[in-house]
Amino acid sequence: MTDARDQVLTTDYQRAVAAWWDTRRTDRVNLALGEIDGFYHHHYGVGAVDLSVLEGPEDTRDERTLRELHRLEHSQAELLLDHLGPVGQDEGVLDSGSGRGGLSFLANQRFGCKVDGISISQYQVEFANDQAARRAVTDQVSFHFRNMLSTGFEDGSKRAIWTDETTMYVDLFEAFAEFSRLLPRGGRYVCITGCYNDSLGGKSDAVNTIDEHYTCRVHPRSRYFAALAANNLVPVNVFDLTDATIPYWELRQKSSIATGIEEAFLTGYRERSFQYLLIAADKI
Ligand code: GPP
Ligand code: MG
């Protein structure tokens, strides 16, 4: 007899990743920012930093810094959504690796559409559904304990799908095959990810440090495009956001919620062994 957990989590690696996120409940870096306005994100920020937050009274400097970091994470979310549309009110979208739900709520607010979020962390699914209840949007935004490699949603049922820094936990060929199945012709997939720059060679020390820190397996840049092409997903836009995310990491390093991984991101980005990309692709 297999229970629901065994059906969703089918490998030792998936169980390890789920356990990591399930037990990560006191991550001040994400809770402190989410508590600012109730949008709990699990992605990084982009855009120019307002350096004036570092000036002014010392006793309120950190609070200003956290607000600025949160603003930059919102900018990243809005950038992703800019590449998703148009999405109609009667259409459904999928947040694949939905974390605590912040981006799903922003998508629902922008498009008025139905949003399904999926995560292999039962803790995250509960947290996000609790947020939906507080916002009184459970009829429009719901979160499910499901695996993005086998979502259970119907063929062609999602107008758009996104992954915001979640593809480093899955095989890209398997994930994109599932996304391709879920999208109708002309449906849009948007991916924001950190990848290693295989035009320079293999994984750098900085990227290995990031893998270890998050229990993830960062992919080479080339594999994204090979896996998209193999699954009838044709890129319409590719942006290198590496320069746009460095200021976020510099500010985060100076803040009270720095976790110690900031140096690896800054080294990887500055030496270009690690790249932060947005890819938008259409299903053909
Ligand atoms: C951010 O989550 C994303 C990940 C952990 C996946 C790895 C991403 C890469 C680009 C390699 P988070 O918001 O929980 O991270 P943190 O707690 O460090 O802010
Ligand atoms: Mg975070």
Characterization of the model:
The chain contains 11 helices and 7 strands. It is α/β, with parallel strands linked by helices and 284 residues long. It has a single domain, classed as Vaccinia Virus protein VP39 (Rossmann fold, 3-Layer(aba) Sandwich), CATH 3.40.50.150. Strands 3-2-1-4-5-7-6 form a 7-stranded mixed beta sheet, with helices on both faces. Helix 7 packs parallel to helix 9, helix 8 runs antiparallel to helix 11 and helix 10 packs antiparallel against helix 11. The longest helix has 22 residues. It is globular. The site of geranyl diphosphate has 14 residues, from helix 3 and helix 8. Geranyl diphosphate binds next to helix 3 and helix 8.
Task: State the main characteristics.
single chain, 284 residues, alpha/beta, Rossmann fold, 7-stranded mixed sheet, 11 helices, 44% helix, 17% strand, binds geranyl diphosphate, binds magnesium ion
When the domains are counted, the total is 1
* Structural class computed from helices and strand pairing: alpha/beta
CATH architecture: 3-Layer(aba) Sandwich
Total beta-strand segments: 7
Protein name: Methyltransferase domain-containing protein
Keywords: Methyltransferase, Transferase
Domain Methyltransferase: 93-187
GO molecular function: magnesium ion binding; S-adenosyl-L-methionine binding; S-adenosylmethionine-dependent methyltransferase activity
What is the element layout, followed by pairings?
Layout: H1 4-8, H2 12-22, H3 28-37, H4 61-82, E1 92-96, H5 102-111, E2 114-119, H6 122-135, E3 141-145, E4 160-164, H7 172-182, E5 188-196, H8 205-214, H9 221-229, E6 233-240, H10 242-253, H11 262-271, E7 274-283
Parallel strand pairs: 1-2, 1-4, 2-3, 4-5
Antiparallel strand pairs: 5-7, 6-7
